[in-house]
Structures are given as C-alpha cells and as structure tokens.
Amino acid sequence: MTDRFRYLSRWCALVLVLLGAGAAVARSTTVVPPAFEELVLESDYVVHGRVTAVESFWQERGGSRVIVTQVRVEVLEVIAGEPPSPLVLTMLGGTVGEQSMVLEGAPQFEVGDEDILFVQGNGRQVSPLTRIMHGRYRVAKDVASGREFVARDNGEPLTDTTEVAQPLHTEEGAAATATGEVPLAVRVERALSPAEFVQRIRAVKPAAN
Fold it and tell me: Which positions carry the signal peptide feature in this UniProt record (predicted)?
C-alpha cells in the first residue's frame, strides 16, 4: 500500500476467535471514506459484474501461511478503465475447512452477487477493491416495484454520489445516522439506478477505447 490510498491499515496482533471446532484470524482495518471523485480516479478500472465462482485456499506470503480468496467475475459492462479478461479478484481472507481468516470490514462475496466494483491493485494488496468496503456497490432490486437500484456494501441505498464520502456502518440499522430518519422505502425509491451511477462514474473517468 502507498500513501495515495489515504487509508490507515492497523496490522494488529492476530486475534483468535473460536468458531466451533475451528478458529478465525481477524485483522483490524481502518479505512478513510473517499470522495466520489477520489474513488473513481484511484481505481484502475470499474466494472459492472456478476460473481460466478468463489474459491479460498492456503498460500505462502512473506514467510507466513495465509488464506486467500479468489473471486471470478463475469464482466457485464466495462464502466471505466480497462479490466483484464477473465477478471479474477484476489484478496486476503476466507475459509478453508474449519479455519477462517477475516479482514474486518472487507466485503464478502457469494456466487450470483451482482455489483459495481472499483478495482485497484488487484493481486498486489490485501484487498483488490479501492478503499476496501468503499469499492463495492451492490445492484439490488426493490421487491415491490421491481426497480433496480444501487446500494452500498452494507445494503444502504445510495441516493447521491456525495454519500460515498460518508462512513460505512456495518451494523444493521447504523447507516441511518448517515441518512437521517428517512424511511428505507423512501431511500430505495430515491436511490440511483445502475445506469445513473454508471453515467456519473463515466463523467469522471471514461472507459478505455
């Protein structure tokens, strides 16, 4: 990691948390939320994609044995920059057998997830997402109307790109502190559609020709 990421990662002593018969290794991480323009410009590329496979395995890194997860993404749309093909995101953490290694706050992926992903330093950092949890935006659907909308990694509807710079609360219901007392249904109705979000990203950084 370099200074231009402008977030602080505190690599604390490994903390063991018992999970049944296994153990989870947690690394504490503090991330400074970026302004929307910073998020876009810091990213090597931005894609709208769908997760098709998730695989975790042990790997030797710097003399230590760690769990690494690879997430294969089907690129539905290149929004900015020029992603590789195929696109496989590599990140620290995951579960192998009864042992888990968790980078606190890092997004967790499942097959079928549809996201807009801001990628930076894939394979060279603990997380391939720009500013970790701030680099993933979910494509969700309102059950009542069937309308697709963009949500932050914690599921909070994104109603304006200025909200990118707000802290991303991971506890359920905590995001209300960033959006006031506006009901969830109203926030969903006001949330940006994927097409609107893509348009605003491209206004900052277009796709490669």
Answer: 1-26
pTM of the model: 0.83
* Domain residue limits at 195: 3-204
CA distance 163 to 158: 7
CB atoms within 10 A of CB 180: 7
> Which segments in the chain show pLDDT lower than 50?
1-23, 26-28, 171-179
Coil, strand or helix at 54: strand
Alpha carbons within 13 angstroms on the beta-carbon side of residue 137 total: 30
Q: Is the CB of residue 89 less than 8 Å from the CB of residue 20?
A: no
In-domain check, residue 171: yes
Cα end-to-end span (Å), the chain = 29
